[in-house]
Design brief:
Chain lengths: 264, 263
């Protein structure tokens, strides 16, 4: 247990080191944030057009969908900030042989990798997500109680942990391809399915996003709770996050045993 | 000149083709992208029996064609140009016996060819899962191809303009994302233009982007009368000339003014 805590402590010191590194490039950072917001606005315009043609989507109205979108963005922002160092595993670490150095450190390699994140542009997501969430709570006349705020914080972190664990599992492919960033990206983005009510999907996709890659627990079930549509499903989120992380770490360790350096 | 350009295109194509996994992953990505769109509109259609005047099969075909032909509208040779400028590679490329625009266009064609192979694969795989409407007749298919091909130089000159900004700024990816966002909205990639409000459609009608995606797909679906297609082609040609002139002036002005980091 203390070992795990030490690891987490080290992770945050890695993180603050790369934050300082990133802040050198203030302009790049700002451009990155603004462009992330623009990319999200394109999706929001899509939702807006959808609701030009209908009153509700599987029982959800425009504002409720935007709330779901905002809550998802908060989790995605946290995930991008906390775990997107994984994208560097193949192209930066394994291919160049940097990974061998990391293996020598007295800390689990996953910690070194995710702590090396440079994705501080994720604040763009966070700002947009928070603004959307706040506006939609006001528009939907949902009282923002202390309990609700605590719930949002806790379940957003759980959501980020769920996506992060799924990314970690797929990052294992880097050990063989040396460039798995595209594979992570392909599976990671399935979270976008859960930005809409899952009742619109067929059975296969429902099972995909609730059981196989449980992205529905990132923001969909929590948002249903905030909206009073569902009471209990969201409490499975922390449990799923923990289970996924145990699987991810176990698989990683297994893959590490088979890992052969590229020798560069 | 044409021969050199084609050779460049072939080289670029082969470079991509080395990584077979790219091919599978990018195809997978396109399919993942189209799924949300299709299910959202299917849900609306099941609820209201209508989706902006389109039948559901038309909309499904629309989105599958969109992800298949999208590289014509969204391309990123601009980052190659900006990268060449930043690391001084452009010095060598300017000394090539063909003009820089022709060089880039050749490379661009190669990338596009690879992207279109993925597009065709995406289309074929999607047709297993969804009902796709085929072109009404051979004429509309040929006109579909013509309008699409006329979009290639148009996109290319937009790319050159964005890439040339690389002379002035070391991070043009913000510009690139803005460009992608504008094209995604106005070309009909996120939704058919007919589903937008009227004021928006008026803007989209003037801009060149609509004819990259929305118009050719509507030709495929048989929604555009043949006599209107002539005006579409004319509009495309005019926009191509305008963008060519802007790209040429902007590039030539920039290249004279700026000294390049020694590569």
């Amino acid at each position: 247990m203390t070992k795990a805590l030490d690891n987490i402590k080290l992770y945050f010191s890695f993180l603050s080191a790369s934050l300082r590194e990133m802040l050198i490039y203030r302009l790049d950072c700002l451009v990155g944030m603004v462009s992330q917001i623009i990319t999200q606005l394109v999706e929001i315009i899509f939702i807006w057009i959808v609701f030009q043609n209908t009153e509700n989507l599987a029982g959800w109205n425009f504002k409720q969908i935007l709330l779901l979108y905002g809550i998802t963005l908060i989790s995605v922002a946290l995930k991008t900030f906390l775990f997107d160092g994984l994208y560097e595993l193949g192209p930066t670490y394994i291919r160049n042989g940097e990974f061998d150095k990391i293996l020598l450190r007295p800390v689990h390699p996953i910690i070194s990798i995710i702590g090396s994140t440079k994705e501080f542009v994720a604040f763009g997501y966070l700002v947009l997500g928070l603004i959307m969430t706040i506006i939609m709570f006001i528009e939907l006349a949902i009282p923002v109680t202390a309990l609700l705020i605590i719930k949002i914080i806790v379940f957003s972190i759980c959501g980020a942990a769920i996506i992060g664990a799924i990314d970690t599992i797929f990052s294992i492919t880097s050990f063989w391809t040396h460039r798995s960033n595209e594979i992570i990206w392909s599976f990671d983005r399935i979270y976008t399915f859960a930005q809409y009510p899952i009742d619109i999907y067929n059975k296969f996709i429902k099972i995909l996003i609730t059981v196989i890659l449980p992205f529905a627990f990132v923001a969909y079930y929590p948002t249903m709770n905030y909206l009073g549509m569902d009471k209990y499903m969201l409490y499975l989120s922390p449990l799923i996050a923990i289970i996924l992380w145990i699987i991810a770490v176990k698989l990683w360790d297994l893959a590490l045993k088979k890992y052969r350096s590229t020798g560069t | 000149m044409l021969k050199t350009m084609l050779a460049l295109a072939k080289m670029q194509f082969n470079q991509y083709n080395i990584y077979k996994s790219n091919f599978y992953l990018w195809t997978l990505n396109r399919i993942i992208e189209v799924i949300v769109y299709i299910f959202v509109w299917q849900a609306i259609y099941n609820q209201t029996g209508d989706a902006g005047g389109f039948t559901i099969n038309q909309l499904v075909t629309y989105y599958i064609l969109t992800v298949s032909i999208r590289p014509i509208a969204l391309f990123s040779i601009n980052s190659d140009i900006a990268y060449s400028i930043r690391n001084g590679k452009i010095n060598k490329e300017l000394l090539n016996p063909i003009s820089y625009f022709q060089y880039c266009f050749g490379v661009n064609l190669g990338e596009m060819a690879f992207a279109l192979v993925i597009g065709i694969a995406t289309f074929v795989i999607c047709s297993v899962f969804w009902t796709i409407i085929l072109p009404a007749n051979l004429t509309s298919f040929i006109l579909f191809l013509i309008v699409i091909m006329l979009g290639i130089p148009l996109t290319f000159f937009i790319e050159v303009i964005v890439g040339t900004v690389g002379f002035y700024s070391s991070s043009i990816w913000g510009m690139e994302i803005l460009k992608d966002a504008i094209i995604s909205i106005f070309s009909g990639i996120i939704a058919p233009i007919a589903l937008f409000p009227m004021w928006f459609q008026k803007i989209a009608n003037i801009l060149p982007f609509k004819d990259l995606i929305y118009t050719p797909i509507n030709i495929w679906l048989g929604q555009v009368p043949t006599n209107e297609i002539i005006f579409v082609i004319l509009k495309q040609l005019i926009w191509t000339i305008i963008l060519y002139v802007i790209a040429k002036i902007f590039f030539n002005y920039s290249i004279k003014k700026i000294t390049i980091n020694g590569g």
